[in-house]
Amino acid sequence: MAQPLLQHFCQILYDSPFGTSVRESDYAFSVIESVHVLSITLLVGSISILDLRMLGLSLREIPVTRVARSVLPLTWAGFGVMFVSGFLLFWAEAAKSYTNPAFRVKVVLLLLVGLNPLIFHTTIYRRVAEWERDHRSPWRARVAACVSLLLWGSIIVAGRAIAYF
Amino acid sequence: MLSPQHWFAALAQSPLGHFTQTSRWAFAVIEMVHLLALAALGGSVLLVDLRLLGVILRGESAAVISRDLGRVLLASLAVMILSGIGLLSEEAMKCYFSPAFRWKMALLAAAVVFYFTVHRRVARGADGGTANLPQRAVAIVSLVLWLGVGVAGRAIGLI
Q1: How many Cβ atoms from other residues are within 10 Å of residue A126's Cβ?
Q2: With an 8 Å Cβ cutoff, are A41 and B36 in contact?
Q3: H or E segment at B43?
Q4: Residues near A143 by beta carbon (within 8 Å), at least 6 away in sequence
Q5: What's the burial of A148, exposed, middle or buried (CB within 10 Å: 0-12/13-18/19+)?
Q6: For residue B35, which residues of chain A lie inside 8 Å, CB to CB?
Q7: CB–CB of B68 and A41 under 8 A?
Q8: What are the φ and ψ backbone dihedral angles of A137, each rounded to 5 degrees?
Q9: Which among A1, A27, A4, A32 is positioned nearest to A99, based on CA atoms?
Q10: Closest Cα of chain A to B63: distance in Å?
Q11: Among candidate residues B75, B77, B157, the one with its CA nearest the CA of residue B109
Q12: Are B38 and A41 in contact (CB < 8 Å)?
C-alpha cells in the first residue's frame, strides 16, 4: 500500500456507489450543501448568542444558565444536521477532500472547537451558580466565548474555502 | 429615472465592480463575510421567534429578548447588505436576470418590512408568560420569510 491508510479509506468512500451517485447527481450534492450551509444559522448562530451573553454584549439581564439551556439544544440539533450533511458531502468528495488544504484546516479547527467546551465545562462553568447573574461573565468564561466565536467563524471561512481549492 | 437594469449595469461598471471582477480572492473573501453575518442574523431571528412561539426562555420577557437580539439582527443585516452589494457587483447582470435573485430581493424586502412594522411591535408589546396566537403567527411568518431569503440566496449560485 503506497498511499497512507487514511487516503486509502477516502478513496474507498469516493469510489463507493453512494459517494459516486451523490457526486454525479444533478441535484443531490447541491441540495445537501444548501442544507449544510443554512444550518450554520442553527449551530453557529445559536452558540454565538451564548458567547455574546457571556461577553456581556447581549441578553445581560438573563442568567447565563437560562440562555445556555435554551440555546444548547438548538446548537446540538444544528450540529447533528451539519455533521450528517457534512459527512455526506465528504463521502462524495473524500478523495479530493483528503488533499484539500482548506478541508484539512477545517478538520483541525473542528477538533479544537470540541476541546473548548470540554475545558469550559470542567473548569469555570462548574461554579456557574456564582456568576450566572453577572452582566459580564468572569474572564475565563469570556476567553472561552471569544475562542468559540473565533473558532466557529474560522470553521465557516475554512468550509467555504474548500470549494476554492 | 433609470430602469433597475441600468443600476445593475452601473454597479457592474463601477470601481467596486471592476475590483471584484478582476481580483482573484475578493469574491471569496466577501462571500465568507456574508456567511459569517448569516450565522449571526439567523441565530438572532431564530431565538426571538422561538421565544415568541413559547418554545424557549418562556419565563423571560420577549420584549427584552427582541430588543437585545434586535441589535444583533440589525448589525448582521447591515453586514449582509454591504457584503451582498460587493457580491452583486461581481455578477450584477447575471443576478439581474436570475429568478433566484429576484425572489431573494422580494423576500428580503418583505422580511425587513415585516420586521420593522409588525414583528417588532408585537415582540416588544409582549412580556413573560405563554405565547398567544398573534405572537405565534408573527413568529412563523418571520421564520418562513427569513428562511425563504436564505434558500433563495443559496439558489442564486445554483440556478
Answers
A1: 10
A2: no
A3: helix B26-52
A4: none
A5: buried
A6: 37, 40, 156-157, 160
A7: no
A8: -70, 165
A9: A4
A10: 11
A11: B77
A12: yes
Pick from B35, B46, B154: CB nearest A34: B154
Greatest Cα pair distance, chain A, in angstroms, is 60
Q: Which segments of A100-138 does DSSP mark as H helices, in order?
A: 101-122, 128-131
Determine the Cα–Cα distance for residues A106 and A102; give it in Å rounded to an integer.
6
Number of Cβ atoms within 10 Å of the Cβ of A30: 15
Give the angle A154-B74-A78 at the CA atoms, nearest 5°. Answer: 45
Interface predicted TM-score (ipTM) of this complex, two decimals: 0.90
B59 pLDDT tier (thresholds 50, 70, 90): confident
C-alpha cell at A23: 457526486
C-alpha torsion A81→A82→A87→A90, nearest 10: 140
**pLDDT tens sequence across A97-148:** 999 999 999 999 999 999 999 999 899 899 999 999 999 999 999 999 999 9
